[in-house]
Amino acid sequence: MRYDEIFANSYISLFSEICCAMIQTKEIKSFFFSQYFSDGLRISLGILLPTIVFLQFGEFDLGITLSLGALCICVIDNPGPVVHKRNGMAMGNLCLFIVAVTTGFARVNVYTLGLEVTVFSFLFSMFIVYGNRAASVGTSALLIMIFMMDKELAPNDVLIYSLQILAGGVWYMLFSILFFGIRPYRAAQQALGENVADIVKFLRIKADFYLPDTDIDDNYHKLVSQQIHVSQHQDAVRELLFKSRVMARESTNASRILVLTFVDLVDMFEQIMATHYDYEQIRDKFKDTGILTEIGHFVHQMANELENIGYAILSNTRYKQLVDFNPTLEQLKLRIDAIGNAHETSNLVLKKILINLRDLNKEIENIFNYYNSNSSKILLTDSSDVDVSKFVTHQDYEPHVFFDNFTFDSAAFKHALRVCLVCLVGFTVAKAFALGHHSYWVLLTIIVILKPGFSLSKQRNYQRLIGTISGGVIGIAILLFIPNTNVQFTLMLIFMLGTYSFQRLNYVVSVIFMTPYVLILFKFLKIGHLDIVEERIIDTVIGSSIAFIASYLIFPTWEFEQIKTSLADVIYSNVNYLVRIAKTITGKPVTLTEYKLARKEVYVKSANLSAAFERMTSEPKSKQRNIKDIHKFVVLNHILSSYTATVAQEITLKGMHKTTPDILKLVKKSINVLNETSKKLGGERKEFTGEKAEPTEEQTPTVTDKLLKEQLEFISKISNDIAKITDGILK
User: Fold this and answer.
1) CB neighbours of residue 436 within 10 Å
2) What is the pLDDT of residues 341-367, one digit of tens each?
3) Rounded to two decimals, what is the model's pTM?
4) pLDDT confidence tier of residue 690, bands split at 50, 70 and 90
5) Across the chain, what does the average pLDDT equal?
């Protein structure tokens, strides 16, 4: 940067550089405090320790076998309550042993092995009907099948070897449970800190709407995309906090503070969602005042403060508040008042923004105080009557769920059929052509890449290829130019840790780390040398090609075939939210739990719709039906849920009810329009049959009534816009 530029923009440039440096440093530190790194460390130790320990006793082969069992079971060790981890890994160990014994005997004949590959690929892929953890149990079983296909074993050794595999799996399960038992709340704390980081990103995107250079349409796309991450992380935290506490029947100070923080975070997210305005209109209205830019920068400062609190939660440290926003809020108030006095146009929308900023500041202060005050005082003053057990989903593991999906209407059934057919093709190709000593890599690639939807398979395919080729180059460079075995071993440990740390965070990076880790490991095992690199890349390309072609041709699942369900679900959840508001208006009691359940449902269904839309955009152009209309629907849904959240805060949380009949009429009008739209999409209706809202005495409508009526009129308009867009989608 030139000196004249520095002096021209001295303060702004210096401040920006410092902020960027602090953010980059904090992001690096946050990674090492995150559950991603924690998971990577736990998995790496769980796999590596058996080999290292038994190496000391001269039983290297036994150590490798135990590590193989641990490697398969670690796939099930996903974030969630410890009880779910334990049950999942226990079931995984049972499947591991059965599949290991079966494969050990089936591999004697190529036809029986081919039959096993076909049957087990279908069976274990169907586990997806029981949720993600059950699906990972199926993946674990398929992994041991693939790893044992080329294992030379005499019939008498199959049972012993399978028991050794089982011992490795049991070891990893016990190690993982012990790991969490030492610090039982750490995983929830990490997930909570990462959820704060997601909300910070969402808040920054919202702040950008006030900046004049921001493209509004592009920013909406970023907003709905980030909403997916927020929703997914909130679900993960709910699982960790609420299911663990419900099952353990305990409520310690540590768990209580985590729950209170999460409840406030969800409320804060609603507060941020509710701050929606017609940004084009307010830009035109106040473009010459500079107030919107000030507001945008102020919201970014609040995001910085919230990010610092999130980092403190993640790193389990105390945080000293750096900024007091109250003086700045007062200055903004004076600026807004001055604009109202100097301009003929109303500054009411600016006052609304100011109120929202004050509420957001209170939420930030509340979270800050949880970690800087007497915990017992917090517990005593908390009066929440929310039944947290209702906020978590409960998976049905009955056998009928499995067999009910034996139909081509089931995406899981079509996925399982696709996997078994493709695995049979991959197995045939690997056996028919001399692909090297590790032909199982073809099947391994297929298992990892094939996902229920085309877009996910395409994404994973691309990531696997790029990661394998890039990692192969790194592996070759290390083996050629770093002959020192101690350095190679150290690098292998680093690559191993990186592989498991990034497997959920960034799959491309994970595969880039995985390839040199495997190559160096094979070098130490004296299994090939540089030819292994060529073999791995060729096998990966073959497996990727087969998987990609199959995902397009064999029982493909396209988003346009299922998008109507997502659209209907999100409309139904919005209607349910509006019905709660209508009940409160008529004076009927609506509990805080009912309100928050309705709110959660709106955000979850909205995130699901946004995710479905994103997947559709990565599918072939010929399969992107009504893509522009669906994008408009997603944006309109975001606006609708934002305004509904605003009204819900005014009515439900602040106890306003028994308002004028015309206000209830507006709510019922929106409900009816959305119900009709849901019906067209084949969805459910949620009727409101409440009593009429009759004021007890004649009174002049207050300013609050006028504001409420204005907001409900806008909700009615958005509901009609959604109905029109839906008609376009259905054509």
Assistant:
1) 17
2) 776 567 788 888 888 899 899 888 888
3) 0.85
4) low
5) 84
User: Encoding tokens for residue 700?
Assistant: 């002049």
Instruction: Decide if pLDDT at 376 tops 80.
Output: no
Placement of tokens 């900046």 in the chain: 211
CATH of 559-730, one of 1.20.58, 1.10.287, 1.10.10, 1.10.8: 1.20.58
Tokens of 569: 């679900």
The answer to whether the 187-391 and 559-730 domains have the same CATH topology is yes
DSSP 8-class letter at 76: G
Pick left, alpha or beta for residue 69 (phi over 0 → left; psi -120 to 50 → alpha; otherwise beta): alpha
272, 638 in Cβ contact below 8 A?
no
> Tokens for 477?
């460079």
pLDDT band at residue 244 under the 50/70/90 scheme: low
Closest CA to 139 of 129, 151, 128: 128
Segment 698-712 mean pLDDT: 64
| Residue 301 to residue 218: CA distance in whole angstroms | 22
What CA–CA distance (Å, rounded) separates 59 from 63? 6
Phi-psi region of 270 (alpha: psi -120 to 50; beta: other; left: phi over 0): alpha
The closest of 88, 530, 366 to 515, measured between CA atoms, is: 530
- The three state secondary structure string of 646-699 is HHHHHHHHCCCCCCCHHHHHHHHHHHHHHHHHHHHCCCCCCCCCCCCCCCCCCC
Residue written as token pair 């087990």: 120
- Cα 197 from Cα 308, distance rounded (Å): 9
Query: Tokens in use for 52?
Result: 């290292």
Mean pLDDT of 601-625: 88
- What is the crossing angle of helices 454-481 and 485-501, to 10°? 170
pLDDT value, residue 12 = 36
Tell me the one-letter amino acid at 508.
V
> Cβ-count burial of 589 within 10 angstroms (0-12 exposed, 13-18 middle, 19+ buried)?
exposed
Question: What single DSSP character describes residue 700?
Answer: P
SS (H, E, C) 221-262: HHHHHHHHHHHHHHHHHHHHHHHHHHHHCCCCHHHHHHHHHH
Dihedral, 524, 528, 530, 533 alpha carbons, nearest 10: -100
**Residue 502: both structure tokens together:** 């990034």
**Element of type H or E holding 491:** helix 485-501
CATH topology (fold) of 187-391: Methane Monooxygenase Hydroxylase; Chain G, domain 1 (1.20.58)
Please tell me the predicted confidence (pLDDT) of residue 13: 42
User: Where do the domains of the chain lie?
Assistant: 1-29, 34-182, 187-391, 423-555, 559-730
